[in-house]
């Protein structure tokens, strides 16, 4: 089920505009090794400005795999991203603050980080345990990524996302992955590379891009463009701008190492014109998700976008309706990879334990919706209907008994207990229940077994690299 | 005479780039001093904009346009103010710290401070601590404003404050910081004098610093 917002001629027009931008205005790549690659392939470079022709960029894109598998340390947890696959979900990434049930806004700690990885591991709809779930404030920024990667490997056997804190973050990720997997001859992680809209990249991101491409490990190239501020106020203009810079970045990965899995990503949206602040709970964000997905399919690239996104600072009704709109749209648009599928508050600035639980539940609902249902001789139930007859009841039928635990989706957190029970319980809210739920899940967490030698080698690596 | 001053205020409020320069010249021709044009024409206009912005009635692009109109008039008035020995209410030095390329918020702060009557020097983005030190020596600001959008570059604010201390310049300025991941607690931690969460309150904080 794919919802479309752009017509074919809209797509062509955006494409043509992006190509014109690439060829005439160019994209900034302030990193010598990246410029050298472009020059080696005959691309016009003036200073740090790169000018790609339509032919050159489309030729480069031809080697991007339409589908790839990220391997987990438990092969049953491998995830396949791309063409023909349903959306792969990963938790929130990069929030500098937590919104705590008791005290509200506070700084996250490494202790929080360990708990959050355990929670991401326990929740059924998070396909990866993620990375940078929050920015822990009590560890040195130079080595935080090492401790985070270690936490993911120890507490979860789901695939993890890699660090892209420059060359160092990338290399440390690959070293730790090598300890865990033995070698890196297949994708074992994925790294997030952000562009710097409009039409550029920061040196740090380019360092990481080059490392990942050389190691042939998957990258997501994502724009967080802000309509009216870092991009034109019109969504069409924003799409043209970011498509140009993203395609240039993806082309670079292919010129470095053809066949490196690359994902075309967008978390772009409008700003609120009253404050200048980002508005990720807006209907415009949902429009962007759909349009971006269509462009991804046009270029035959896997897509990343969407999630459970809200501007609200607490898991309240606003957080609910904004997140659900974003999430439903993400699935409707058939986005391949979803970061921020759980936990985000305050326009990407904050993470909440309770929000992660509630979002995961929403992911379950949406997955169930898109899972469809079977229509066949058995489910058409002719014999059962005939047997029960007019005015009868199906509750005691064998078919009902057999299927009663599996036929329907059941909430783990949502309340279906009824009005009276709710009054008796003291009028609890979804937030209260989510708070209870995450504490239960974290309390009963057990680290999946990990070879003791590997665990020790990882610990040694973190200690000496730090 | 007050008519032309009102027209100038209105031009600022409306962000009227077409007329503001002519109106400024007309006011000067009528014999009004640069100081009066600034204090009785431009400033009331920007004060109104500030109030309306805070109330959510004027939007960011409109506020920026008003600030731009005021700057256009100031370009004409500035040499005359210097000549007449008139001082702005203070000087603000701004920059986005080393390693960080985000500057929209800082630019907004610059505009709001200029609208509040400050003389601004903006060092741009990715500014080394040494560059801040040098600029403090040369420009002699009352207030230094630092901006960072990344948690990884925030600590450069601490390094920059340290650099000012080592240069013996720390107590010559008031330091305010801002940016999405920045907090009052962080400001206290690194020894900044203040923190503002948006451009309008940054301008107010700067005003408080010079009146103190």
The percent range for helix content of chain A is 40-55%
On the 0 to 100 scale, the average pLDDT of chain A is 96
Radius of gyration of chain A from CA coordinates: 23 Å
Q: Termini of chain B, distance in Å?
A: 34 Å
Major sheet of chain B: order of its strands?
2-1-3-4-5
Please give the share of residues in helix of chain B. 55-70%
Question: Spans of chain A with pLDDT under 50 lasting ≥5 residues?
Answer: none
Number of helices of chain B: 9
Radius of gyration of chain B: 18 Å
The average pLDDT of chain B is 92
Instruction: Give the beta-strand count of chain A.
Output: 18
Structural category of chain A is: alpha/beta
DSSP summary: helix tally of chain A: 17
Global geometry of chain A = globular
Q: What topology, given as strand order, has the largest sheet of chain A?
A: 8-7-18-17
* Oligomeric form: heterodimer
Main β-sheet description of chain B: 5 strands, parallel
Order of helices and strands of chain B: HHHHEHEHEHEHEH
Please, could you describe this protein's structure?
- With 466 residues, chain A is α/β, with parallel strands linked by helices.
- Chain A contains 17 helices and 18 strands.
- Chain A has helices at 8-25, 32-40, 54-61, 110-122, 144-155, 166-181, 203-215, 235-256, 283-299, 317-332, 353-371, 377-380, 382-388, 398-403, 419-424, 430-443, 452-465, and strands at residues 27-28, 44-46, 49-51, 67-70, 79-82, 88-89, 97-100, 104-106, 191-194, 219-223, 226-227, 262-266, 269-271, 278-279, 303-305, 337-338, 344-345, 350-351.
- Chain A has a 4-stranded mixed beta sheet with strand order 8-7-18-17. Chain A has a 4-stranded parallel beta sheet with strand order 9-10-12-15, with helices on one face. A 3-stranded antiparallel beta sheet of chain A has the order 1-3-2.
- In chain A, β9, α7 and β10 (219-223) form a beta-alpha-beta unit.
- In chain B, 58% of the residues lie in helices and 11% in strands.
- Chain B is built from 9 helices and 5 strands; from the N terminus they run ααααβαβαβαβαβα.
- Chain B has helices at 2-14, 20-29, 34-54, 60-83, 104-115, 129-139, 155-166, 184-190, 199-211, and strands at residues 90-96, 118-122, 143-147, 174-178, 194-195.
- In chain B, strands 2-1-3-4-5 form a 5-stranded parallel beta sheet, sandwiched between helices.
- In chain B, α8 links the parallel β4 and β5.
- In chain B, α4 (60-83) packs across α5.
- Chain B starts with a helix and ends with a helix.
- The model of chain B has no long low-confidence stretch (mean pLDDT 92).
- The interface between A and B is medium-sized, with 18 and 18 residues.
